[in-house]
Design brief:
single chain; 319 residues; Phosphorylase Kinase, domain 1; Transferase(Phosphotransferase), domain 1; six-stranded antiparallel β-sheet; 16% strand
């Protein structure tokens, strides 16, 4: 194994290589324990700075556009989602706004607008529908969409002790919705249980197309929020090409891989790779190089078709 004394890489060279996803630097990290330690220290420092600089949650607005705001439903790095009330027609809706208000950075607005364009072309019973999009008088970008009453997929399965047959029925509905999106030139790119809500009747709704990629020829070059070396998404559910930050390789097969992880977890209760607490470079290496655990090693009743489906979806070779 390498060490700091034998390594001529400076901290600046090391971080630039990681930030840009340079293959030679990522390969070097697998061999040099000291550089791995320094890389992990860099990430911890950056995470601490990001946390400290994250703006505090804004107060609950009374109104966004024509919608009366009732409560906050959730928030992420890009936006905040509220429960709103529409007067005509009278109904409750979900209202999403770009984090940052009228002073939001241009790239956030572009990502937000792409999510709006994506949702506008998708009309499927298992995909939340968009109703309206606009900009408020004070310059805040927003859109209103179907308010989904449900719980996250994993929570639904655990809380209700859902049978295997019911899990398969839910998963088939999710697959049908994603196939529909693919046929309309949309790749979701962030499929995971927390982006799939299930209502009391077992009907799933797929949410959060903020990282979606539009691929049809009428849209020109594929629209995506990822540049070479950038990694966006949720690591345990990423396909190898997404984990590597290689946007040119991202296509419908990337969603199929993520669906494979969701399916594996639905069937076994575990992820195919133990990467949730791994250092980033080690998690990426595992996803890109290591074979997944066979589902039957966790549950022997999964031998046969179900195991074959899971392992086929998780294949690293893009056939």
């Amino acid at each position: 194994m390498g060490n700091r004394m034998a390594c001529n890489r400076t901290d600046e060279e090391l971080w630039d290589g990681i930030d840009q996803g340079l293959p030679e630097v990522l390969s070097h990290l697998s061999e040099c324990s000291d550089c791995r330690r320094r890389a992990d220290a860099f990430r911890s420092t950056i995470d601490a700075v990001r946390l400290a600089s994250t703006p505090s949650t804004p107060p609950l607005p009374e109104k966004i556009g024509s919608y009366l705001i009732r409560r906050r439903l959730g928030e992420g790095g890009m936006g905040i989602v509220y429960e709103g009330e529409q007067r005509t027609p009278r109904r409750l809706v979900a209202v999403k706004v770009v984090r940052g208000g009228q002073h939001v950075e241009g790239y956030r607005v572009k990502l937000f607008e792409r999510e709006i364009q994506t949702l506008a072309r998708l009309k499927h019973p298992s995909i939340a529908s968009i109703y309206e999009a606009g900009v408020t008088e004070d310059g805040q970008h927003f859109f209103a969409m179907e308010l989904v009453r449900g719980v996250q997929l994993n929570e639904y399965v655990r809380g209700r002790q859902v049978s295997r047959v019911e899990r398969l029925e839910i998963f088939c509905k999710v697959c049908d919705a994603i196939n529909y999106a693919h046929q309309r030139g949309v790749i979701h790119r962030d499929l995971k249980p927390s982006n799939i809500l299930v209502d009391v009747n077992g009907n799933p709704k797929i949410l959060d197309f903020s990282l979606a990629r539009i691929t049809d020829p009428e849209s020109g070059p594929a629209a995506t929020g990822t540049e070479l070396g950038q990694v966006r998404g949720t690591l345990p559910y990423m396909s190898p090409e997404v984990a590597r930050g290689d946007p040119d390789q991202i296509d419908v097969r990337s969603d199929v891989y993520s669906l494979g992880v969701v399916f594996y977890e639905l069937m076994t209760g575990q992820l195919p790779y133990p990467v949730s607490r791994a250092a980033l470079h080690e998690a990426v290496r595992t996803i890109c190089e290591e074979p997944p655990r066979r589902p039957s090693s966790l549950d022997r009743t999964l031998r046969g078709d179900l195991e074959t489906i899971a392992l086929k979806a998780l294949e690293k070779e893009r056939g």
